[in-house]
Design goal:
Layout: H1 4-17, E1 24-25, H2 27-38, H3 44-54, E2 62-63, H4 64-71, E3 73-74, E4 77-78, E5 107-109, E6 117-126, E7 130-137, E8 144-151, H5 157-172, E9 181-187, E10 190-196, H6 203-210, H7 215-234, E11 237-238, E12 247-249, E13 259-261, E14 268-269, H8 287-290, H9 302-316, H10 325-333, H11 349-358, H12 369-372, H13 387-400, H14 405-417, H15 424-433, H16 443-452, H17 462-469, H18 479-486, H19 489-492, H20 495-505, E15 513-514, H21 515-525, H22 533-547, E16 554-555, H23 557-576, H24 580-588
Parallel strand pairs: 5-9
Antiparallel strand pairs: 1-2, 3-4, 6-7, 7-8, 8-10, 9-10, 11-14, 12-13, 15-16
Helix pairs in contact: 2-3, 3-23, 7-9, 9-11, 13-18, 14-18, 14-20, 20-23, 21-22
Length: 591
């Protein structure tokens, strides 16, 4: 609480700002005093940011009560902000909200997908259980997605179980080299997977076009595939169908070798039950999978064999094993494959070794997944990052921890809907920080990365900042969490992206966000159930009251745009203003 001396200091300081004595501080008065104490340090943008931070009723002036609320601190922390209705901001007074950002995945039941998307008739691919098409958002035609259509069947319960498993796997996996699931629609017998669109085509197509893939590109692609698998295996999930058709380039740009692993239809959790099904393409299937006969159990090391075959095919354009099923299996079991003829006779020894350590008939003899990414052939020399880009991302990471709880939820909802095009720059920084290539960041990796990128730690409390970024409390920073914190306003303030995030909260697909929508989403996304259902409902009411401009009891898209704009305004406020008490002390010294 403020002491009597502090109260007098606040009154005297306010009077020094209020030069005309009308009981409020105008922008010109604010600018005059700031210039007097700091010269050119406070430019027009800083003045506007400070005015916005103080002016909670948005009338263009700083009233005395607003000034007191801004400078008063309790226990070393700012008091709760005042919202438009004059009540304290409830969102940061309810305890630490632990966000399961995976719950920010829109799921629509008995909703016609054509009400949201224009789906092309031309098939662009086929997955394990369905066909893939391109679709455009009806509201924003520049927002293109891939739609995988799968038909449920009552005849084979196993396939229905596989569908449910694929949806769950796609929800769980959050990695820069795993194709992102954006939403699901379920209508009648059809399920639609809405995914980010990777327009660069399959690795398979590039092999067919060129006969093989250059060694440098192959190493770059395989490093990304191995990173994705290391992440999936750590979470107890095996892909079981790694092949050139299931690795796709993000774009058609010749120099863009970013890839995504797709089609997780045969993926399964190997921690819940043993894997025994003989699935996947025989060309790429491990010997133990071929011999399982749906009875013998095998391990996630089957993916490692598939990567070895993939590497072989990428480098020479032909599979290592062929012939009848018996011949194929016998040669694979004996590790007998062409390795001396062209182009192998002039191949980089490290590339050949990479194939050898994976094509081991005994799973236990294959190089462990956690060491694959560190293989000499895949470890490329470090590249110099764009210093301006890195500094911008590091700055955003620092600012993010000062965001309000709901602001972080909203920004994370935006990040959840961004695809590889919007995240290209952030992707580069994340990969550079991810020293062990496992797709998540530890506190040490974040600290080293920030220091290396010139952001400096300064007075930053790295533990507090890391805890703020780690919204789900997993003790690591997942890709979406990093993207949310690293986002700049430009990438996340485009209408099509804001619209996609808006639809995350519009659970009933009505075009509006209701109190009940907010309650349900907050209730389901709180990992540790720190907020009770009643608290989630109260917060929902607070948010609607703050942003419902026309008073209809719900948030429209226009209201949501305003809300998101204020999220970013708060972010600028944090970076543009000094400590209120430091400023108070400076102003008090003015004559």
């Amino acid at each position: 609480m403020a002491t009597a001396d502090t109260g007098k200091l606040i009154v005297d300081t306010f009077k020094k700002f209020d030069s005309n004595g009308d009981g409020k501080i105008s922008r010109d008065e604010l600018k005059r005093v700031l210039k007097a104490i700091s010269g050119d340090k406070f430019d027009d943008a800083s003045v506007d940011a400070m005015l916005s931070a103080c002016d909670t009723n948005k009338d263009g002036f700083v009233q005395y009560e607003e000034f007191v609320n801004w400078v008063t601190q309790e226990n070393g922390k700012p008091q709760a902000k005042t919202d438009r209705s004059g009540s304290k901001d409830a969102l940061d007074q309810r305890g630490k909200f632990t966000l399961d950002y995976r719950k920010l995945l829109p799921e629509r039941f008995e909703v016609d997908i054509k009400a949201r998307y224009n789906v092309d008739n031309l098939e662009i691919g086929a997955g394990g259980f369905g066909k893939v098409f391109i679709a455009r958002d009806k509201e924003f035609s520049n927002r293109k997605v891939a739609v995988k259509k799968v038909q449920k069947t009552t005849k084979t319960p196993t396939e229905s179980g596989n569908l449910a498993a694929e949806i769950q796997v796609m929800k769980d996996l959050d990695h820069p080299n795993i194709c992102k699931l954006l939403a699901t629609f379920e209508e009648g017998r059809n399920i639609f997977f809405i995914m980010e669109l990777c327009e660069g085509g399959e690795v398979f197509d590039r092999i067919i076009e060129n006969g093989f893939i250059t060694e440098k590109v192959a190493a770059t692609v395989l490093a990304q595939v191995c990173s994705a698998l290391a992440y999936a295996h750590y979470r107890g999930i095996a892909h079981r169908d790694i092949k050139p058709e299931n690795v796709v380039f993000c774009t058609k740009e010749p120099d863009d070798n970013r890839v995504k692993v797709i089609d997780w239809g045969l993926a399964t959790s190997f921690t819940e039950s043993a894997m025994t099904k003989a699935v996947g393409s025989m060309t790429y299937a491990a010997p133990e999978v071929i011999a399982s006969n749906d009875q013998k159990a095998y391990t996630a090391a089957c993916d490692l064999w598939s990567v070895g075959v993939l590497a072989y095919v990428m480098l020479c354009g032909k599979p290592p094993f062929w012939g009848s099923r018996e011949q194929h299996y016998k040669n694979a079991k004996n590790e007998r494959y062409p390795f001396k003829d062209p182009p192998w006779d002039r191949m980089n020894p490290d590339a050949k070794d990479f194939v050898k350590v994976l094509l081991k008939a005994k799973p236990a003899e294959r190089i462990p997944i956690e060491k694959v990414s560190q293989h000499a052939w895949l470890v490329s020399p470090p590249t110099e990052s764009d210093s301006t880009l890195s500094a911008s991302v590091v700055s955003n990471l620092k600012e993010y921890s000062a965001q309000s709880t709901f602001s972080r939820i909203c920004i994370t909802a935006v990040a959840r809907q961004l695809d590889h095009k919007q995240l290209k720059d952030i992707h580069k920084v994340f990969r550079e920080m991810d020293l062990d290539g496992n797709g998540v960041l530890t506190a040490n990796e974040v600290k080293q990365g920030m220091s290396k990128m010139g952001g400096g730690l300064g007075g930053t409390n790295i533990d507090e900042m890391f805890a703020s970024l780690d919204m789900d409390g997993s003790h690591t920073i997942d890709y979406t969490e990093f993207c949310a914190a690293a986002l700049g306003q430009f990438n996340s303030s485009q209408d099509d992206v804001i619209w996609a995030a808006f639809k995350t909260f519009d659970l009933d697909n009505t075009g509006f966000i209701s109190v009940d929508n907010l309650k349900k989403l907050l209730d389901s996304a709180d990992v540790k159930d720190i907020w009770s259902s009643d608290v989630c409902e109260d917060v929902g009411k607070d948010i609607v009251a703050m942003y419902d401009k026309d008073g209809d009891g719900s948030i429209s898209f226009d209201d949501w745009r305003t809300l998101m704009g204020e999220c970013w305004q708060k972010k600028r406020d944090v970076s543009s203003t000094e400590s209120p008490y430091d400023l108070l002390a400076k102003v008090s010294k003015l004559a």
